[in-house]
Specification:
The complex is a heterodimer of chains A (328) and B (371). Chain A has ten helices and 13 strands. Chain B contains 16 helices and eight strands. In chain B, α1 runs antiparallel to α6, α6 packs parallel to α10 and α13 packs parallel to α14. Chain B starts with a strand and ends in a 5-residue tail after the last helix. Classes of the chains: A alpha/beta (328), B alpha/beta (371).
């Protein structure tokens, strides 16, 4: 029998995630993929995998989030487009009712979200520095020839974590190399790195903010047990890592699409799974219409223009609305 | 003498009117673009803030158009801006661009000091002519500010997106063309009428966000990604705590027009969080949050260029102000990086946060539900 489901998609800089929930908001499927710098390829692959699993179901609504949310929304036809901060908050509040603090570390961004009674009261996002994010951990693991999945395990074996300068990724790396040349063990260096990243995160984002219990830790980096441990030590309290911690953005997007439909029933704009086999292409050009000289991106699906992105004045992106009413 | 000066929002219109009234030839730099930024970052010191780099870009571009004299504001106090004019001139010299430099330091005693300086620039023109020129320049920026405030109101409520912006652009052109005082008034009236004709949705629930921070970042739309227009299109009414005409009245005219600017009122609100001058607009930023809260605003955004000392001081104080005053504050650092995606994410999330708060009351309704 056909059932109704909601699809949530989080197109991030490092990972592209998809989550499917049913009308009771139970999670049916969750997929975590690497974006590898090609969001459209990742998106198609994600759709193919999801399609294989939920062929039978009817899609009632689609929500997108993440830095590639507009792109994904244009290509797929989404019903809700939401920023990742709100999406993460919605998901965390759903899985861990009563959460007050969300620590989220993704590929390029780290976020701190504070809630009260299920309402976001404050948030912060790393600004000009990406020292405390997943990409940096990835890079260091690669440099030391350690699979990222083993990172946490190895770091937990540390006897005496060394102190690593964590203010900036460049300082941190040279400090790590220095400690490494002194002959210190990899375990101690990795554990020190985790402490440094936590310090960096708290200095950069928490800045004078009070963090109340329940604290939830999510995003790809939450997979790293040494990072969980480092947070627990620094905050002197329990840090909850919810199930589906790495696809929280996508879950939030799916929940938003579902909530929206409860509030105000809509007919989904989802274009169907054919997109997974379509030829997706982008092209960019510099608009000469005003001194902004925006680099406008044109998106093609099977040689047909599906939309425009990245113009400041809306000269082109206004046309998206005609193709797909009300996105933005 | 072909005078040029840096861009800062609508300032160019006023200064141009003033200088031309004095018979000085003006060469305006082209509007700030990516090219301006590229030139500025190429030749400016890396750790200088964005205003210096953009000034530098402006001067290089204006030189290509034939300018030979720079008119710049100076300043005193902890903000580095006070010596930017000289640093910029030195950098330009190294590039083989030789400009004459005229620096208008803020007067210490009264407006006559400012006028005396202008007289020097203008070959000792009679004083009444100088005063008339200053007045005309001031009237223009005052008109621009007046309409810009109205534009913020209409933009948040317009039914067809972009209608208000069209009126605004047309008004700026008219204002720029206006020669006599009467024509300035006409331009204003025309804009007011045109705005009144825009179909509006007055029932729309509009969020009110105040913008505080460093003056250049606040006034120059290129540096702040045109945040006011962006928020306006999201249906948010935006007001700044600094308008150029207020600043001119305070700093160049030393408060000649009484009760015109809100500056004193705003600074008064800064204690107990920040009790003394820290340079730039640090104190105004801190006071601005409390001031805006009293005016019934839903949230405040602080804008600062990367490495701006006064604003960093203010930023460190703001979490406490935000908590005590119970008003959300978002700090946005701008620099030559163009991570617009991150900026938009923050602005959207901030608006979400504010609308959750606005709904208030009923606990069930306040739950996050994705709108």
């Amino acid at each position: 029998m056909k059932k109704g489901v909601f699809l949530g998609i989080d197109v991030g800089s490092v990972s592209t995630n998809l989550v499917v929930i049913n009308e009771e908001k139970e999670i049916l499927e969750a997929i975590y993929l690497r974006t590898n710098g090609r969001p459209l390829v990742a998106l198609k692959e994600g759709l193919r995998k999801i399609y294989d699993r939920i062929k039978e179901e009817e899609i009632l609504g689609v929500g997108t989030t993440g830095s590639g949310r507009q792109l994904a929304a244009l290509v797929l036809g989404a019903d809700t487009v939401k920023n990742e901060i709100t999406a993460h908050a919605v998901a965390a509040n759903y899985l861990v009712p009563g959460v007050r603090t969300i620590l989220e570390i993704g590929g390029q961004d780290s976020k701190l979200i504070l809630l009260k009674d299920g309402v976001v009261t404050d948030f912060a996002m790393n600004t000009v520095c990406a020292a405390g994010t997943g990409s940096f951990l990835d890079q260091q693991a690669q440099r030391l020839n350690i699979p990222i999945e083993k990172f946490g395990e190895i770091a937990l074996k540390a006897q005496n974590p060394v102190r690593i300068a964590g203010r900036c990724a460049v300082f941190a790396e040279s400090d790590m190399i220095h400690k490494q040349q002194l002959g210190l063990s990899i375990e101690d260096i990795l554990a020190g790195l985790c402490d440094a990243l936590v310090r960096n995160y708290l200095n950069n984002l928490a800045k004078g903010k009070k963090l109340y219990d329940k604290i939830v830790f999510q995003g790809g980096v939450a997979a790293n047990i040494a990072m969980r441990e480092a947070f627990r030590r620094a905050l002197c309290t329990e840090v909850i890592v919810p199930p589906y911690f790495e696809v929280m953005g996508a879950l939030g997007a799916a929940l938003i699409a579902a909530f929206e439909r409860e509030k105000q029933p809509y007919k989904t704009r989802f274009k169907g799974f054919n997109v997974k086999d379509a030829e997706l292409k982008t092209e960019n050009f510099e608009c000469q219409n005003c001194p902004n000289f925006c680099e406008v991106v044109k998106i093609y699906e099977d040689y047909e223009v599906v939309g425009y992105l990245n113009d400041r004045c809306g000269r082109y992106s206004q046309m998206n609305n005609k193709k797909l009413a009300g996105i933005g | 003498m072909k005078v040029t000066y840096p861009h800062m929002g609508n300032m160019a219109i006023g200064v141009k009117a003033m200088l031309e009234e004095l018979g000085v030839e003006v060469v305006l730099p082209p509007p700030i673009t990516k090219k301006t930024l590229t030139l500025g970052t190429k030749y400016g010191p890396e750790f200088a803030c964005l205003p210096l780099k953009l000034n530098l870009g402006n001067f290089i571009e204006a030189y290509e158009l034939g300018a030979d004299t720079i008119l710049m504001a100076g300043g005193t106090g902890p903000c580095r801006f006070g010596y930017y004019a000289y640093v910029e001139q030195e950098i330009l010299k190294d590039l083989g661009i030789n400009y004459d430099l005229l620096v208008l330091e803020p007067p210490e005693r009264n407006i006559m000091e400012f006028i005396a300086k202008l007289k020097k620039i203008t070959d000792n023109k009679p004083i009444f002519q100088v005063i008339r020129a200053v007045k005309k320049g001031f009237l223009k920026i005052k008109a621009a500010d007046e309409i810009e405030k109205k534009v913020a109101f209409f933009r948040a409520r317009e039914i067809t997106k972009g209608a208000t912006d069209r009126v605004w652009q047309e008004f700026l052109q008219n204002l720029n063309r206006a020669r006599e005082e009467k024509e300035i008034e006409e331009a204003v009236n025309q804009a007011v009428v045109a705005l009144a004709r825009i179909p509006m949705d007055l029932a729309r629930k509009v969020l009110k966000i105040g913008v505080v921070g460093e003056i250049f970042t606040l006034l120059e739309p290129f540096t702040n990604f045109n945040i006011e227009r962006y928020l306006g299109n999201l249906g948010v009414e935006v007001q700044r705590t600094i308008y150029l005409s207020e600043w001119v009245n305070d700093h160049l005219f030393l408060g000649l027009f009484k009760n015109y600017s809100r500056h004193k009122e705003i600074v008064k609100e800064a204690p107990p969080f920040l009790c003394h001058f820290v340079g730039g607009h640090g104190q105004e930023t801190v006071g601005g949050v409390k001031y805006l809260k009293k005016q019934g605003f839903d949230g405040v955004i602080q804008l600062l260029p990367f490495t701006c000392m006064p604003e960093i001081v203010a930023q460190a104080v703001l979490p406490a102000v935000s908590e005590v005053e119970d008003i959300p504050v978002l700090s946005l650092v701008v620099d030559e990086h163009t991570g617009e995606a991150g900026l938009i994410t923050r602005l959207e999330a901030f608006c979400d946060l504010l609308s959750f708060r606005q709904k208030g009351g009923n606990h069930e309704k306040r739950r996050i539900s994705g709108n």
